[in-house]
Amino acid sequence: MTSTLPRTLTRELPQHEGQTVRLQGFLHARRDLGGVQFLVLRDVSGLTQCVGSGLELPLAESSVEVVGRVKAHPKAPGGFEVQVESFRVITPAVEAPPVEIPKMEWNVNPETMLDYRVVTVRGLKERAALKVQAELVAAFREHLNTEGFTEISTPKIVSAGAEGGANLFPIDYFGAPAYLAQSPQLYKQIMVGVFERVYEVAPVYRAEEHATSRHLNEYLSLDVELGFIESEEDVMALQNRLLAAIMERLKERCAPEFALLGATIPDVPAHIPRIPLMEARQLVTEKYGHAVGGKDLDPEAERLLSQHYAETEGSDFVFVTKYPRAARPFYAHPELNADGTPNAELTRGYDLLFRGIEITSGGQRIHDHAMLLESIAAYKLRPESLEGYTEVFKYGMPPHGGFAIGAERLTAKLLGIANVRYARAFPRDRHRLTP
Ligand code: AMO
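== Aspartate--tRNA(Asp/Asn) ligase ==
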């Protein structure tokens, strides 16, 4: 009674050699060779080659069911083939897909790939990138849970920006002005007063007008904040442990995805190298002759600094520390002078570079109420617009800090994907609101 067989997944075939199994999935590819038909069924766990004859095959991407015997076959994907005993169309495709999924090549005609994303996202490489990101997020949660963190959920409709700058999306909130949240920054700090150690996994919104390979208008922010710290060193040490745990889990669970994309999982050094921003700018200029513009590192400087640490210390990661006040938001804690007074120029803010690109900003935050109000004034922000936030600093907020990882940037760099848009299922960019 084949219909009562439980569903078998492609990855389980080796356990069923010689037995009859029932597979369900999508018709990935089909070929007719003089009366013998080959069909490739794609399920969540991989591809199964099935062989039959006299079958009426539907259009590609139809969902189908195959009942058949499992036979070892060294040339088939996964080393097993299924000899079809019965074949059934579950839901037929009513049109041929606009792109042939098995022939799709990564980043070939990227706009078409994104226009037809509802189908192209089924591609093996496309879904591998999203699978790796899902595991990465799971590892993020898992590790932070073991360190006593609590997951929070903060508003995405807000009354003021958190990061400064003009990249806010305005919305109409029942006639009142509001914005899509740029970052959970202010709320995650407030929640340190509740749980001491918190994290959030949620999309954030940035109205960046420019189209680059590293900017999205909606991206997944992996946010962390922890209280009772001594300095930003505690925050960097946590991020170091977290990254090691994430890479461990990816090694355990995503080897096939990395192999498919020809990418390698980095080793995370026990102590990721650190360099103050000012020294980093100098190093890049002296060693590579690159004059760094602005107050931060420009993309070329990030690439060169990463190259330096890969070559000299074998590290794919480097923390750039002690950011100048001019390159940090109002909430960044000042660096302290030897006598304990606040330094007017430098902060305890840092960035983390990974394989040539910034994947994180973080640091210690101001927790002293008076110092925070002074900083808001110095940045010429309207204190009334931040009252809901500054209020909490009247009530014993401990020294705290945290960071945010851009999930798409980390995923893209891990997998050698050239544009962050391919590290998101349905990217939003300047010209793309659908699908
Ligand atoms: P920041 O604005 O630097 O810091 O953002 C943190 C990280 O988010 C990623 N990122 C982006 N990814 C894709 N598209 C974008 N437009 C984009 N903008 C930023 C980057 C970046 O390093 N509140 C602070 C974090 C903190 O201090 O905790 C913040 O949001 O990987």
